[in-house]
Amino acid sequence: MSEIPVLFQQIRVRHGHYCPMSTLGGRLGLAALEALDGSCGTYEARYRIDTCAADGIALATGCLPEEGRLSVRNEGRHCLELWDAATGRGVRAELTAAALERAAACRRLQEAGADSAAADALAALRGAPTEELVWLTPLSQREFDSF
Question: How far is the C-alpha of 26 from the C-alpha of 76, rounded, in Å?
């Protein structure tokens, strides 16, 4: 098994264990940052479902809820909205159906005690191509402000 990247080690510490949804939250955050060129760091985030993914999003984007830069609403959508106030640009990052299916399969492995297979499934989530896991679209300020 390959070495776990530092970001995902930090997510485990914050979250308390390795988890498919906190891992996918990290992937959402990284994808959104990349779409915004990730250089400024004046981001604010909104997430539209209250899941473990929020821990991954917080660490990947630097938008910590305890600093008021990540808001979460339980609207049933695995959708991150990231806004860069310095550039006036935003992006919406949503988990694909395939990502959610892979997370559910990983969770079943964890619950069955299949630790090695679950670790492999988590590694696959960390390393999968972004386009398999995340759907990205531009976000207007009006859409971001309507949260």
Answer: 18
126-133 CB contacts, 8 Å cutoff, 24+ apart = 126/4, 126/5, 126/8, 126/23, 126/26, 126/27, 127/2, 128/27, 128/102, 130/27, 130/30, 130/31, 130/34, 132/96, 132/98, 132/99, 133/24, 133/27, 133/31, 133/95, 133/96, 133/98, 133/99, 133/102
Domain boundaries, the chain: 6-65+77-145
The CATH-assigned architecture of domain 6-65+77-145 is 2-Layer Sandwich (3.30)
Task: Please report the pLDDT score of residue 1 as a whole number.
Answer: 47
d(CA 104, CA 3): 23
The per-residue pLDDT for range 47-61, each reduced to its tens digit, is 999 999 999 999 999
pLDDT band at residue 41 using 50, 70 and 90 as cut-offs: low
pLDDT for 39: 64
Q: Is the dihedral of CA 117, 17, 95, 87 positive or negative?
A: negative
pTM of the model: 0.93
Mean pLDDT value across residues 8-28: 96
